Structures are given as structure tokens and as C-alpha cells.
Amino acid sequence: MTIFITGTDTDIGKTFITGLLADFFLGKGLKVEVQKWASTGRAEYSDDISFIYGLMKREGVPSANSAASPYCFSFPASPHFAAELDGRFIEKRRLAETTGFLAGQCDILLIEGAGGIMVPLARGLLTIDLIKEFDLPVIVTARSGLGTLNHTLLTLEAIKIRNMRVLCVILNNQIHEDQSIVYDNLRTLREFSDVPIFGPVPRVATPEDASASIEPMGLYLLEWLKRS
Question: How would CATH label the architecture of 2-227?
Fold first, then answer.
């Protein structure tokens, strides 16, 4: 099974949540692989995949052009623009091949997106459209504090009108936020959406300290996997 983990914005915690979920599934005896279609800011390898591998306690870092990191670009920008600056182009066929290969090597493949779900991978190709073409279920990662209601509901609306599958939303609280806002956001999102809303993942000193907070979502996803 392959799951795409998107966000409502950049620097929203997608890498952190992907790593926590990967570690959770490994702890349940599943064979897990992770992938990031396009990474920016370093041409040699994906910093995000490196971070996730650390949480998975897996040695080594996949290099650029590997199945786990098919595209890595030097400039920190949207993938379509970073690719152009490097004189390259993201090919849909390459993403289909690497995703299919990794999915065949594991029980669950977690794909982390770049930025939000409407980010272009190339001129004329939005991330959301490729997710739909590949028929991938989606997890939405969102910040827990001020501003998240609009961003999260817009993300869910974009997914809904394309008749795509949203498994759940998880709120990530990795900066200091007014907790009354955080918990009202949790309540409000549950009132205005028809998908499970998990979190907030608390602010922690180390990623390992957040393991317990990811468990309810992990158990929910395990049940979903059993039914799929």
C-alpha cells in the first residue's frame, strides 16, 4: 500500500510526521519504505529522506536519482522552478517507475510531498493531479495554531472536488502556540470536515518524544490497511 503525505504549506512538519509514521509501522512488524519525489536545497541527496532514515534507525542516505530520492535540486524553491534552474525536468514516467519499484519492495510506502498539495512539479503538472493519476490516498499534515483553519479546509476542498481519498488530517504543534487556539482548531476542523482529525502532536525536545502522540493515528491507519 502506498500513502501520500502532503501538507497545507511548506515547513509544516511533513518530514517529521512521515518519519514518526514510518517508525511506528516498523515497530508493528511491517516492511516500510519512504520516498520524496522532489527535494530542493541540496543536489546530492534529500535532507528530508536523511532525517526520516534517522528516525527509522536505518543507516545510509539514498543519493539523488535513487528510487527514494528520484529528483534532488540545488536551489530551495518549488520543484518546478528548482528543476528549471538546474536545467532539468521532472518526468512523470520516472516518478511512476520509482514509486512502483519501491511499493513492490515493502508492505507500506510513505511518499512525502514538497510543500503543499497544489505545488507544481513541472509547468502544467500540479502535485495533486499526479496523486490523483496514481490513485494514492492522502494524509494531510497541518500546523495546529493560528491560520490553519483556512489552509486546511482549502486543502481538503481541493482534494474533495477531485474525488480523491483523504485518510485523515494530523495537526503538528512544533512551535509555541496559544493552546486555546490549538484545541479550538482541532474542534472546528472536526465540525467542518468529514475526515478524522488527529493531534496535536506536541512540541517536543526530540522526535522520539513524539512517538506516543502518533500512536492513535498509526492504529487508525493499521485498521484501514486491514480493510483495504
Answer: 3-Layer(aba) Sandwich (3.40)
Q: Buried (b) or exposed (e) across 120-143, using 16+ Cβ within 10 A?
A: bbbeebbbbbbbbebebbbbbbbb
Q: Tens of pLDDT along 110-130?
A: 999 999 999 999 999 999 999
CA distance 19 to 167: 17
Q: What is the pLDDT of residue 177?
A: 77
Q: Is the pTM of this model over 0.90?
A: yes
**Active-site annotation, residues:** 36
Domain ranges of the chain: 2-227
